[in-house]
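hey so i finally got around to running the thing on that chain from the lab meeting. sorry it took forever, my laptop kept dying and i had to restart like 3 times. anyway pasting the input first so we r on the same page abt which one it is
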Amino acid sequence: TPFRRKLVHQSVADLYPDVLTESSQESEGEYLRDLVLTRLGREACEEHRAAKDAERNARELAEIDTAVGFRHVVDAMIAAQKPIVGHNCAVDLLHLVDKFVSPLPSSVVTFKHLVRESFPQIYDTKRITAAAPSIHALFPATGLSAAYEQSCTGVLASTHVHIAQGFSQLLDVETATGAHDAAYDAFMTGTLFARARGVEAARQGADAAATSPPLASFANKINLMRSDGCFDLAVDIESQRVGRSTRIRVYELGGGEATDAVVAALRARFSGAQIDWLGDSACVVTLPEDSSATSDEVLAAAQTVRESALAEDYASYVRRITALPGDPGWDAGSAGGAERSRKRRRGDDDGGARSAPSGDEPSARTCTVL
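ok and heres what got predicted. didnt touch it at all, straight out
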């Protein structure tokens, strides 16, 4: 056995320091091995053993280095103290800190300090394309793949992006097949940031009053889904109020292409609004804080495409569908579906069966209120 072989090697070295022991294997995969003893002299044996120890140590260090893996990339990023760029990267940032910097603290302020010490500047291209005044109008959709493809056209494409040596093959990848691959997503995100920054730099070049670097106001502002606010890493407060402004649930849209048509009409009518699908036949419209539009205007815009469309305040909708019997606003008709959804997520409905939420019934992710 390996243990017995090691015991023999050590015993011979102690009793006969001028004898060298080596294992000999007749064929690959053979379990039994021969032990070869050679009398070389004390000094030669010591040199041979030292060389073997050095070889083994180098091999073990190489194995450790391989196991460390992405840790080296994160260490290099922290050491460089350069800006980093992500797309809709709030969750990515939490995992990055938790896995490579420190366990997530209970304090928001402590978390922000940890992030800023490691990564002084973070840019979120989702936030930039959704909220930068000079850029938002150029992006009808702000999902990564759609925004990247848009950046390859018109004025955005005038900013040339240099590809690092050895990565030129990324230019030949179709977005549909490359999306969600880590390397290709990083390529799309970096390209999107460079081109958005190029547009902003051109705008500032024509503005004599502009003194700050392009997009500097978006540093450390991380996008929050289903909100027109952001998570500001530069603000050292425990509780940050995220702007809600007007959030309206528009429903009874017909599903499929009918819902597509309503969403397109709403995007065309309300520039700067964030519109998220909610099930197959509903959506949530989040208007910017400076918008003067009302829920009646949103409903009217939806009804120009779908006369049967309805609308309600989103906060009221969430309270209603998550209410339990006895809670204020409890409505058996609307809350029952949410209760069944909660049972499904717990796995305690009849027979333990699990099924997907139907139609306009929100899932756990959909009901999240930031």
